[in-house]
């Protein structure tokens, strides 16, 4: 972990829970999470998983129903939002429509008593930082979506907050702009050594930006770790399915030895996998294998499991091809293959994988919100 | 292009209806404020002759002869009262002068020269009646507008104030605008918090409350005003309550004075302030307030710097609406006001339906309408400077 060692974390959630009045389930439950100084931590999860609630509790707009949130070792329980010194970038930007861009940026300075030359210089510097030089006199409604996003970011940075909270800041933008702004945000974070708590439902964005990712589902944090750890070693079937693309094969555990196990699929075929949960023979399990880890054709037997499939679709994707296949009796499967490979609809083929790459989880885990 | 024609065709019936039933009648009515057709319609030849006369001293015999002929003709046709009434506005006594002269002419008295007329009545030998006729020769007049401002033109063409005891309209106008401004102010003070509450509560709670605000819309202003009369009377609920709480020793006069007018009118007009403001407030992004506090603004400052400026177009719209309606109010001040609390629409009603002096009614209406149009225009530009 990043904050391992003697340094205190900047922000700490300790046993935090939030139940909204009238809501039956907890929006956030049993949350323990620490954010280190200078860290870029992303809350990743499907819609309704409690990400915004977590962010709003930290910003002070929602009060935890249990637990404690600390900033620099001090409890935030009695500190109102305007005394928390956190820059918040809202999903809809929340720019002040009756003020020019420069006035928007000067607002946090003005309420802190910074005025005149000094404030003006800071505004100019902030505009330069987000590459909006010369647009200070515009009204927010005269800006494009991407420009508004930059203004919101600049406004959240200009007063040098302890931490910047961003709630799906790129959610409303088209793909190209989003990727461009991801790079910008990363650049600014490095340049200013910012601590950022970022919220997104886009796993690609989370993996690309973050030092660590915390995966949320149903109000509970499922796993927290570096993007690599989350991707390579998902803690459960939900994380495996939500982060990156994954194939799910449902079956029953028939044998287990150490972390190796054998699973009988619905169609009767037997595959081998790595048990990621404590499983016993007879348990219902799902085996998860990523498309790029599936190897078509002959494979060395030592570390491999094989499976017979029927090709349904064979699609060209420029740098690779994808096979959508049918596993007789056990559902469908996506495979990523080199462009030069040839196959056609109706072919029967044998595929295989390294057992390390196929993870078996208990089937009673939470169903993923999305699998691609 | 075709789309535009289609949309025009769709609104054309409504437009035609508005023009025929509203715009044209209003313009025709208002035109009466500046037109003066009583004399030149009834006595066309005299009017033409009056216009060519230089107005110095006494008129030539030819003019006197034309007037005498048309006077007699109008008397026989039964249309003399139009001219008689008109001249009487400017010069009291003209009415009887015209009728006695016409009677004598009908009886055979000669009317060929100014001297003939002067023999019938000596007043024909004075300049003032002729000057008054010359002013009334149409087709346009400044008479009504000046009268509505407590001014008149003397026989020499100078604009003068009317005597103090006849000067009423300027005072009534000032009173009307003062009452309307204060009612708009009271509506703003009472309505802003209500609209704010409605706009910030969840819909589930706000909707029933909104119905309470709308409820007064479904009762007539007359009924509501009468209810206030009951509440505010000397032995009414409010007075009883004040005495019970020991705030006053004896009943206070709450009604049939200016206080009653303010209370009743503010109540009647409050929804007109709340609704437009509520509409504007609903459009204000609630996260803007959150953003303000995350940026370090304490609640009051966030409200003053972020919320209030965004709600001002609604305040302006509501205030203009209330002011506009209040300025034209008639029933409420008549019922709960005292004699000194009548507003200008009472005078307009008087001239429209009692004295039938439509020129005067039109002039007062026009003077009421002009500041309102200015205000609406100012309100519009104010709304436009703050985009939603
Ligand atoms: N103000 C609220 N009142 C009641 N329930 C809420 C409120 N805000 C969010 N929730 C509920 O809490 C859960 C988590 O919501 P949220 O934190 O917004 O999720 P996310 O940001 O991950 O989409 C959802 O089930 C949502 O319906
Ligand atoms: Mg959210």
Automatic annotation (TrEMBL), chain A:
Signal peptide segment: none
One cellular component (GO) term of this entry: ATP-binding cassette (ABC) transporter complex
Residues covered by the ABC transporter domain: 11-243
Organism: Sphingopyxis panaciterrulae
Keyword Cell division attributed: no
Keyword Nucleotide-binding set for record: yes
Pfam families tied to this protein: ABC_tran (PF00005), TOBE_2 (PF08402)
One function term, GO molecular function aspect: ATP binding
InterPro entries: AAA+_ATPase, ABC_SmlMolc_Importer, ABC_transporter-like_ATP-bd, ABC_transporter-like_CS, Mo/tungstate-bd_C_term_dom, P-loop_NTPase, Transp-assoc_OB_typ2
One GO BP annotation of this record: quaternary ammonium group transport
Lineage: Bacteria, Pseudomonadati, Pseudomonadota, Alphaproteobacteria, Sphingomonadales
UniProt name for this protein: Putative spermidine/putrescine transport system ATP-binding protein
SUPFAM superfamilies: MOP-like, P-loop containing nucleoside triphosphate hydrolases
Keywords attached to this entry: ATP-binding, Nucleotide-binding, Transport
From TrEMBL, chain B:
Broad class of the protein's primary localization: membrane
UniProt domain ABC transmembrane type-1: residue ranges: 173-379
Keyword Transmembrane listed: yes
GO CC aspect terms: plasma membrane
UniProt subcellular location: Cell membrane
Domain of life: Bacteria
Membrane topology type: Multi-pass membrane protein
Full protein name: Putative spermidine/putrescine transport system permease protein
Organism of derivation: Sphingopyxis panaciterrulae
Lineage: Bacteria, Pseudomonadati, Pseudomonadota, Alphaproteobacteria, Sphingomonadales
């Amino acid at each position: 972990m990043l904050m391992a060692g003697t340094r205190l974390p900047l922000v700490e959630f300790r046993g935090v829970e939030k139940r909204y009045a009238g809501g039956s389930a907890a929006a956030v439950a049993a949350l323990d999470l620490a954010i280190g100084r200078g860290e870029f931590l992303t809350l990743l999860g499907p819609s309704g998983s409690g990400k915004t609630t977590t962010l709003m509790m930290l910003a002070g707009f929602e009060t935890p129903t249990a637990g404690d949130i600390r900033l620099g070792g001090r409890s935030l329980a009695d500190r109102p939002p305007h005394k928390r010194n956190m820059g918040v970038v809202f999903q809809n930007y929340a720019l002040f429509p009756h003020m020019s861009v420069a006035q928007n940026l000067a607002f946090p300075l003005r309420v802190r008593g910074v005025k005149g030359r000094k404030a003006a210089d800071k505004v100019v510097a902030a505009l330069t930082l987000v590459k909006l030089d010369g647009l200070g006199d515009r009204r927010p409604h005269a800006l494009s979506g991407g420009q508004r996003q930059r203004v919101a970011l600049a406004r959240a940075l200009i007063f040098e907050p302890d931490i910047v909270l961003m709630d799906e800041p790129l959610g409303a933008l088209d793909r190209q702009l989003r990727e461009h702004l991801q790079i910008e945000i990363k650049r600014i974070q490095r340049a200013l050594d910012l601590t950022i708590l970022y919220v997104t439902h886009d796993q690609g964005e989370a993996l690309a930006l973050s030092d660590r990712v915390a995966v949320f589902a149903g109000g509970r944090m499922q796993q927290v770790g570096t993007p690599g750890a989350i991707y390579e070693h998902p803690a459960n079937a939900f994380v495996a399915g939500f982060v990156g693309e994954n194939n799910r094969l449902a079956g029953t555990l028939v044998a287990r030895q150490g972390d190796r196990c054998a699973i009988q699929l619905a169609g009767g075929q037997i595959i081998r996998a790595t048990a990621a949960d404590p499983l016993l023979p007879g348990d219902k399990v799902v085996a998860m294998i990523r498309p790029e880890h599936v190897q078509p054709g002959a494979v060395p037997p030592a570390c491999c499991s094989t499976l017979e499939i029927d090709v349904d679709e064979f699609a060209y994707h420029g740098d690779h091809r994808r096979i959508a296949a049918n596993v007789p009796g056990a559902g469908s499967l996506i495979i990523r293959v080199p462009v030069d490979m040839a196959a056609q609809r109706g072919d029967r083929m044998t595929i295989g994988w390294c057992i390390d790459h196929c993870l078996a989880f208990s089937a009673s885990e939470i169903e993923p919100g999305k699998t691609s | 292009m075709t789309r535009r024609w289609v949309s025009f065709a769709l609104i054309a019936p409504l437009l035609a209806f508005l023009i025929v039933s509203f715009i044209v009648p209003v313009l025709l009515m208002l035109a009466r404020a500046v037109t003066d057709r009583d004399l030149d319609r009834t006595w066309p030849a005299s009017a033409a002759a009056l216009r060519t006369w230089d107005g110095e001293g006494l008129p030539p015999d030819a003019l006197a002869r034309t007037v005498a002929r048309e006077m007699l003709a109008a008397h026989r046709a039964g249309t003399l009262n139009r001219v008689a009434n008109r001249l009487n506005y400017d010069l009291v006594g003209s009415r009887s002068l015209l009728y006695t002269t016409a009677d004598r002419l009908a009886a055979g008295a000669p009317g060929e020269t100014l001297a003939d007329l002067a023999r019938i009545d000596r007043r024909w030998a004075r300049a003032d009646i002729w000057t008054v006729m010359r002013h009334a020769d149409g087709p346009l007049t400044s008479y009504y507008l000046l009268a509505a401002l407590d001014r008149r033109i003397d026989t020499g063409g100078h604009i003068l104030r009317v005597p103090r005891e006849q000067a009423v309209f300027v005072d009534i106008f000032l009173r009307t605008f003062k009452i309307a401004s204060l009612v708009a102010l009271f509506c703003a003070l009472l309505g802003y918090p209500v609209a704010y509450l409605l706009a910030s509560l969840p819909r589930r709670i706000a909707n029933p409350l909104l119905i309470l605000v709308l409820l007064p819309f479904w009762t007539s202003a007359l009924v509501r005003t009468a209810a206030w009369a009951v509440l505010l009377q000397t032995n009414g609920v409010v007075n009883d309550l004040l005495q019970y709480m020991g705030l006053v020793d004896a009943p206070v006069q709450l009604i049939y004075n200016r206080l009653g007018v303010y209370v009743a009118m503010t109540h009647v007009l409050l929804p007109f302030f709340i609704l437009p403001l509520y509409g504007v407030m609903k459009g204000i992004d609630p996260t803007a307030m959150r953003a303000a506090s995350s940026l370090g603004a304490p609640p009051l400052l966030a409200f003053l710097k972020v919320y209030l400026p965004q709600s001002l177009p609604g305040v302006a719209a509501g205030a203009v609406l209330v002011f506009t309606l209040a300025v034209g109010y008639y029933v409420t001040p008549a019922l709960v006001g005292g004699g000194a609390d009548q507003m200008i629409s009472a005078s307009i009603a008087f001239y429209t339906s009692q004295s039938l002096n439509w020129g005067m009614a039109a002039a007062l209406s026009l003077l009421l309408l002009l500041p309102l149009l200015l205000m609406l225009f100012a309100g519009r530009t104010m709304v436009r400077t703050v985009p939603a």
